[in-house]
Design a protein that fits this description.
175 residues; 7 helices; 45% helix
Length: 175
C-alpha cells in the first residue's frame, strides 16, 4: 500500500460536454509528469457493472454508488483516479467526496446546444428519435455542482481544461 492515498477528480457535466476529452488529456499530462492516474469512464464501467443498462433511477443510484466505492478503494491504495462520469445528481458526487479525502469536483460547463451538435455517442439523436427518455440535462435534470473546485470550459481545447486541473492539483498540494 502506498504511504499516501491517491487523489480523485470527478469530471462532471452533461453528456458530450467535453469530460472524456479533458480526462484523456489530463491522464496524458499526468503520465508525462510520472504521475499515474486511472480513468474510470462511465460507459466502460457500465459494461462491467450494468452490462445491459436501462438507465433507470435505481440502476443509476446503484451504479454511481458502486463507482464511488471502487474509486475510494483505489485511492486508499495510493492510486489516483479520474472519474469520467456525468453523475447527474449532486448526491452521487457528494457520496464520492464523503469517501475520498483528496477529492476535486471538476464541472465541465457546456451549453446543451453545443453538446447536442457534438453527440459522439448518438445520445441526443436517440433521445430525439424517442429511443431514450433519460438523457441528463435534456430529459432528466442535471444538477450542476454548487461549489466545484474547478469549472472548466467545455468549448475550450481539452488541453486548457487539463492544464487548469494540473494547476488545481498543485494548488491543493496533491501533486
Amino acid at each position: 500500500m502506498s504511504a499516501q492515498p491517491g487523489f480523485a477528480i470527478w469530471m462532471t457535466g452533461i453528456p458530450a460536454s467535453g469530460k472524456t476529452s479533458i480526462t484523456r488529456e489530463l491522464v496524458r499530462k499526468l503520465a508525462a509528469k510520472k504521475v499515474h492516474a486511472v480513468a474510470l469512464e462511465s460507459d466502460e464501467m457500465r459494461t462491467i457493472l450494468t452490462p445491459e443498462p436501462t438507465y433507470g433511477p435505481e440502476e443509476r443510484d446503484r451504479f454511481y454508488k458502486t463507482l464511488a466505492l471502487i474509486g475510494a478503494m483505489l485511492t486508499r491504495s495510493g492510486v489516483n483516479v479520474v472519474f469520467d462520469a456525468t453523475a447527474h445528481k449532486r448526491a452521487y458526487r457528494d457520496y464520492a467526496r464523503s469517501l475520498i479525502p483528496r477529492f476535486i469536483e471538476a464541472y465541465v460547463r457546456c451549453p446543451v446546444e453545443v453538446s447536442m451538435k457534438r453527440d459522439p455517442k448518438g445520445i441526443y439523436r436517440r433521445a430525439a428519435a424517442g429511443k431514450t427518455a433519460s438523457v441528463p440535462g435534456l430529459q432528466t435534470p442535471y444538477e450542476p455542482p454548487l461549489r466545484p473546485e474547478a469549472v472548466l470550459d467545455g468549448q475550450a481545447p481539452p488541453e486548457a481544461g487539463a492544464e487548469a486541473l494540473l494547476k488545481k492539483l498543485q494548488q491543493v498540494l496533491y501533486l
